[in-house]
Design brief:
The structure is a homodimer. By secondary structure, chain A is mainly α. Chain A has helices spanning about 15-25, 40-45, 50-60, 80-100, 105-120; strands spanning about 65-70, 75. The two termini of chain A are about 20 Å apart. Chain A binds a DNA duplex through helix 3.
Chain lengths: ~120, ~120
DNA sequence: CGCTTGTTATATAATAAATATAACAAGCGT
DNA sequence: ACGCTTGTTATATTTATTATATAACAAGCG
């Protein structure tokens, strides 16, 4: 999967990495059981430091998106704690929806947006 | 409206301020046309620096949630650029939804979550 | 004139992010 | 046994961001 980093973004590089890998999973660019590049390889490919990649991988492991085997590397492996996932989704969605609602975006339009995004991913 | 800052959060204080004010608008704790406390007053109430509040207000003004009059203070005034708002909502929602979908939360459940949040706000 | 308003400038401290080296333990392949 | 790669840890340094601290300014109200 291709990873693009915007070095002029106000988002930290490791955050961009996490987001793109998660988007890669949901768009099936990389699937459950597949290996990500090694921290060193990906770091060199992108042109950043090894520890920045390592930080992203460690976070994704803690959040239950991948498992790290010392010798094989980082493998996509979703740990499903659904109750927790729903609570997190609710908290994050509240902030997004609040901004949208303030801007007069209707509940109906938000449902439409949700469908459009899910359609894009074939979910 | 009451503002609560978590000084142990990993979110910057000015970000928490922005989020809470937007949530305050959407829950009608503060309405269009109403004045927020002055930067100095709010800073003292919360126990933080004036510039931190000023930064939050400036950001909310730039994002079109309030207008600042030099002598009157900061007033809730939503600038509706709907096309832009929808694009921003789509980008932010994509990240939230991607995480949720990875955790096996279905499209149906996400619609339910959206409704639950909107219901809470009476939107 | 005194007061408050947002705004700007400058300096400083504290924290976070990113980079740079180096080294370690584990295991694979030859 | 050796060389290689894997993630991991440690340390140091640099840079960027965040937060605080003072100070001053222009604008306007009473």
């Amino acid at each position: 999967m291709v990873i693009e980093i915007d070095f002029h973004s106000d988002e930290a590089i490791y955050v961009q990495l996490c987001n793109q890998i998660i988007l890669g999973i949901v768009t099936a660019q990389i699937r459950e059981g597949e290996l990500l590049p090694s921290v060193r390889t990906l770091a060199e490919t992108i042109g950043i430091n090894m520890h920045t990649v390592n930080k992203a991988y460690a976070i994704l492991q803690r959040e239950g998106f991948l498992k790290i085997d010392r010798r094989r590397g980082a493998m996509i492996a979703i740990d499903i704690d659904k109750l927790r996932a729903i609570e997190e989704a609710r908290a994050e969605m509240s902030l997004v929806l609040a901004r949208a609602v303030c801007k007069n975006i209707s509940r109906k339009e938000l449902h439409g947006l949700l469908d459009a995004i899910c359609d894009e991913w074939g979910v």
